[in-house]
Amino acid sequence: MVAVIPWHMLLRTVTEINFVELKLADRHRLECFLADTREKTSSFLGYPSPKDFDFSLFKEFLNYPINNIGDPFKDSAYTVTSHSFERDVLSDVAGMLRAPEQDWWGYVTNGGTEGNLYGLYLARELYPDGIVYFSQASHYSVAKNVHFLNMRHIMIRARNNGEIDYDDLIETLKIHRDVPAIIFANIGTTMTEAKDDIRKIIEITDNLAICNRYIHSDAALCGAYASFLDPRPAFDFEDGADSISISGHKFLGSPIPCGVVLARKTVVDRIARSITYIGTLDTTITGSRNGLTPLLLWYSIRILGEAGMRKRINGALEIAAYATHRLNAIDVAAWRNQNAITVVLPAPSLDLQQKYQLASADGQSHIVTMPGVTRQDIDCFVADLIQDVSYSSSIHEG
Question: What tens digit of pLDDT does each residue of 114-133 get?
Answer without folding.
Answer: 999 999 999 999 999 999 99
